[in-house]
Amino acid sequence: VTGPAFPHRLAVNPIADRLHPYPALLKSIVQADDLRNVLSVTPHLPNYAQTPLASLSDLDGEFGLGAIYYKDESTRFGLGSFKGLGGAYALFRFLERALVAETGAIDLDALLQGKFRTLTAHIPVSCATDGNHGRSVAWGAKLFGCPCYVYLHEHVSEGREQAIAAFGARIVRVNGNYDDSVRQCQADAEQHGRTVISDTSYEGYSEIPRDVMRGYTLLFHELAEQLPDMAGITHVFVQAGVGAFPAAVCGFFWDMYGTKRPKLICVEPVNADCVFQSVVAGQPKAISGEMNTIMAGLACGEVSMLAWDILRNGCDFVVAIDDEAAAQTMRRLAAHRPAITAGESGAAGVAGLWSVCASAGSRETLGLTPLSRVLVFGTEGATDPELYTRIVHGLPSSA
Ligand SMILES: Cc1ncc(COP(=O)(O)O)c(C=O)c1O
Description:
By secondary structure, this protein is an alpha/beta fold. It contains 18 helices and 11 strands. 42% of the residues lie in helices and 14% in strands.
């Protein structure tokens, strides 16, 4: 690999299970068959379009790999990230359950046309977010006519707040970090009778986050059409915040391909490495404090309970990267032809791949060779355009 060698930490999951088929217990969280239910909803939402799959053919030679496929979520629903697939879908499924007594089986088109507004106007929902999940829930709440409250911790940028508020959601600022905002959101919901539409699950709360994870499986419907040979993918690099996204990816591949599934590598910022620490410890480990990183979407200190159930034995490796790797990757992707817009968290998957490819030891540990066919998710575009411009146009990433 030409160019810089990025410092990183690599953890091997000592209890990764590559000998057994996907356990039935985990199928009840996410499985390939969930796609059928998702397909009856998500493609019918406004502005649905398949997102592109790019082949990073300029990087695969340089990285010494056979192929790198980049699923580019920067245009998803005009929301700018893959999170558009989760929150709005889970909100629909919740409304379906909540309204069944009054309406019978709810019709999505009728809901979108506002036929149930007199009911949905009295169903307030809320969530905590680093930015992207909240945008999805706020968008869904606007589509379906629910009052919406979005909790932002003190480090979420102004630009991300504005994007959420533009959908009419009320913003609640919380002191502390992401995990503090999750707890405040839950406590206020209990007090004010709101339903939390969260992407992370915790003790006593899992039905809705499970639907969020299932919503992400739509990516595989698109990939099945776009990838020349999905079964031939050898490695998947997936950014982890609370771990719901990598767990959904892991569950889907494990269910589809069993012991022949690709190796799953979670990528996290060094300062918010809760999946890394949990994999090393063999049990959930929480990180506290500010978790200072430009990868805002990944600045989570506690693994989602449901995600951990899958990642515990399903994740093969975790790589913790620093901000400079993410910033350089954003610039590198912007220089790709055609140009790829990847936000800080969106670029982290390729940044993790770049970091390990530049280290002979890490490459060997992961079994990356010129025959490897790697899938990476570009999970967000310029979700904070001002920050994106500052980083990509050469100013120091800490500026
Ligand atoms: C752009 C982006 N990528 C990846 C993730 C990680 O997803 P998860 O928190 O489900 O692990 C997030 C989470 O917010 C995100 O915003």
